[in-house]
């Protein structure tokens, strides 16, 4: 099944990033200037599922004197609109969506229209015909949209190139120190160098897989866990956590049938904690697989580029392993649930009007 849409989309990421580098650099510069002019007090990072994990990573990563970055998933805001409605100061609502048409995406657009027309919006999507790409608020808030290259609109069930490219796009818009024009080609080279080796890793499918990381890599760990859970149709149970948070109860999930993946952060201070945890688990569970992911000396070495975008490289092992383990279960990788309890685009959620 290596000719699946999903495998093609995983392997296409290096070329997608390379071709997107110059257009993104130009557009991101415009967006950063626009954000500076509009001067929001807060930027909401919103999406559902994988799209929300983009915001989870960014909210733990981008620092400086700019607006406060808040992770407010569309699934939270649609269910509890009051979470955002009464916050002080000007707001930029930044929403991510592969299809741009999921129920919660539309629900948040409707809520902003009705209750926060003064909020600015920055919509990032892979679908040029979607509600996210084409909607314009009633004003006075302004709306900007970025539509990613067509190749990112994954045809497979799982989000792969859409996740990484939306993440890099948002990072370029929020972090003036991240130069997409030079960083994306470097990330492309790094990903192209490691992908062939990932497809040939000796890594049998475990009954449980746990992904751990610090800072922005906590969001990457969450996305990694979801990829395995989705593509194995739930037959490999997964868990994710922060490196230091894992000891505070969640480590109870480790048993003799568990594989643990610890992401070693590029920052040397943070990496100390990651390495200590990997050593601890190896000592306590000598018979299970504990794999470190990161720079030189790790079990899976990533050829890190030294840019803030390196976080996308950490998700590649899980994308590949999820595909391989799905194949091992004889599942249709592009639709592991055969259209039953989970579908590629969430739709049909009943949306309820809200009175402030």
Q: Which short descriptors sum up this protein?
A:
356 residues, alpha/beta, 5-stranded parallel sheet, 44% helix, globular, SIS_dom_sf, isomerase activity, SIS_dom, isomerase, plasmid
The radius of gyration is: 20 Å
Shape: globular
User: Which parts are unreliable, with pLDDT below 50 for 5 consecutive residues or more?
Assistant: none
> What is the ordering of alpha helices and beta strands?
HHEHEHHEHEHEHHEHEEHEEH
Cα distance spanning the termini: 51 Å
**With helices defined by DSSP (H or I, 4 residues minimum), what is the helix count?**
12
Question: How is the largest sheet built, in terms of strand order?
Answer: 2-1-3-4-5
What is the average of the pLDDT values?
94
Count of β-strands:
10
Helix content: 40-55%
Structural class assignment = alpha/beta
Strand content: 5-15%
Largest beta-sheet characterization: 5 strands, parallel
Compose a concise summary of this entry.
One of its GO terms (molecular function) is isomerase activity. Residues 190-336 form the SIS domain. By secondary structure, the protein is an alpha/beta fold.
Word description of this protein:
With 356 residues, the protein is an alpha/beta fold. The protein has helices at 5-11, 13-38, 50-59, 74-79, 82-85, 103-115, 131-134, 161-174, 180-199, 216-231, 268-284, 311-328; strands at residues 42-46, 68-71, 91-97, 120-125, 143-147, 208-213, 237-242, 258-263, 289-294, 300-301. Helix content is 44%, strand content 15%. Strands 2-1-3-4-5 form a 5-stranded parallel beta sheet. Strands 7-6-8-9-10 form a 5-stranded parallel beta sheet, with helices on both faces. Helix 11 (268-284) links the parallel strand 8 and strand 9 (289-294). Keywords: Isomerase, Plasmid. It comes from Paracoccus saliphilus.
């Amino acid at each position: 099944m290596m000719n699946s849409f999903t495998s093609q989309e995983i392997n296409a990421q290096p070329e997608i990033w390379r071709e997107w580098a110059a257009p993104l650099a130009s557009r991101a510069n415009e967006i950063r200037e626009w954000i500076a002019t509009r001067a929001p007090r807060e930027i909401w990072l919103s999406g559902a599922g994988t799209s929300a994990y983009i915001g989870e990573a960014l909210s733990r990563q981008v620092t400086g004197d700019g607006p406060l970055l808040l992770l407010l998933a569309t699934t939270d805001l649609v269910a509890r609109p009051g979470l955002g409605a009464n916050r002080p100061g000007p707001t930029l609502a930044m929403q991510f969506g592969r299809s741009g048409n999921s129920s919660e995406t539309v629900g948040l657009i409707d809520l902003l229209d009705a209750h926060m027309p003064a909020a600015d919006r920055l919509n990032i999507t892979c679908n040029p015909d979607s509600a996210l790409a084409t909607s314009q608020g009633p004003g006075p808030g302004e709306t900007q949209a970025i539509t990613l290259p067509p190749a990112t609109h994954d045809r497979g069930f799982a989000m792969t190139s859409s996740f990484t490219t939306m993440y890099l796009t948002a990072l370029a818009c929020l972090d003036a120190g991240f130069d997409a024009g030079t960083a994306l080609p470097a990330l492309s080279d790094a990903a192209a160098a490691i992908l062939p080796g990932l497809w040939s890793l000796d890594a049998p499918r475990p009954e449980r897989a746990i992904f751990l990381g610090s800072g922005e890599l906590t969001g990457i760990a969450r996305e990694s866990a979801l990829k395995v859970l989705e593509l194995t149709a739930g037959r490999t149970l997964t868990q994710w956590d922060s490196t230091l948070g894992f000891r505070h109860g969640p480590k109870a999930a480790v048993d003799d049938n568990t594989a643990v993946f610890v992401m070693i952060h590029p920052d040397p201070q943070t990496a100390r904690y990651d390495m200590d945890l990997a050593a601890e688990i190896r000592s306590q569970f000598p018979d299970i697989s504990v794999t470190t992911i990161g720079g030189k000396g790790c079990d899976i070495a990533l050829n890190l580029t030294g840019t803030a975008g390196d976080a996308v490289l950490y998700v590649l092992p899980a994308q590949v392993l999820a595909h391989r383990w799905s194949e091992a279960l004889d599942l249709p990788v592009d639709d592991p649930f055969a259209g039953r309890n989970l579908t590629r685009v969430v739709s049909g959620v009943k949306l309820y009007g809200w009175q402030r």
